Each structure stands twice: as C-alpha cells, then as structure tokens.
Automatic annotation (TrEMBL):
One of its GO terms (cellular component) is plasma membrane. The gene is mexF. It holds the Pfam family ACR_tran. The chain crosses the membrane at residues 62-85, 92-114, 120-141. This is MexF. It comes from Pseudomonas aeruginosa.
Amino acid sequence: VSDTSGPDRVMHYNGFITAELNGAPAAGYSSGQAQAAIEKLLKEELPNGMTYEWTELTYQQILAGNTALFVFPLCVLLAFLVLAAQYESWSLPLAVILIVPMTLLSAITGVILAGSDNNIFTQIGLIVLVGLACKNAILIVEFAKDKQEE
C-alpha cells in the first residue's frame, strides 16, 4: 500500500466515467455556432471509444430545434382568428396582420445592420415588437371604423 494523489470524486453520466467541460461562446458568436465548432473539434480529436454528450441548456436547445419557425406563424394565425371573431369581419383583421411582415422585416434589418445575432433575447424582442405594432394597428383600425360609421 502506498500513498498517491488523485481526484476526490469521480463524476459519472449515464453510468460512465465523465469529464465535465463548461464554456460560453465568444462575443459575436451564437450558442449554435459554438456548439457546431465544438462538435467538429471533438469528432477530429477524440480517440476511438470516447464520445461526448450535451447536457443541460445545450441539450434542451438541441431538443427544441427551430421551433420558432412553427411558433411565429401559429401566433400570427391565432391573433388573426381572434381579431376576426372580435371584428366579425375578415378584412379588418387583415389590415392589422399585414403590419407584422413589415415590422419583422424592419426589425431583422436593424439586427443585421447592428451586427447582432438571432438569440433568445432578439426573438423575445421581436415578439414584443409585433405585439406593440399590432396594438397600434388595432387602435388605428378601430378609429377608422368609428369614423366610417359616423
């Protein structure tokens, strides 16, 4: 028996001994770009018999995928149907909904010109911006409808 030094604990994940790596993307890079770069590096450098697994937030991002491509159109459709029920018309809600593409185009152009990336904060900002633009359009349509009825 002899004294040696070593780790005070051994981490396991799914029953295998693991080494935990943590990091964050550099400024100007998205988490998706960092993930792709790390995957490429690991595929080149890891020896046979060793593999990697994503956990926590990155694992959740992989599972979620590009759900925004489905969520945004469904939100627009739901808003249109609610407005159609409220106005009892198909044309008035159409005037409100047509503001959404112009708003998103302007906002995305601003994000690109600012050199920003499409992260979760940008997406939340887009949702808020669309909500505010629709609110303003609803007020304008209501005002025009009232004036037309007079």
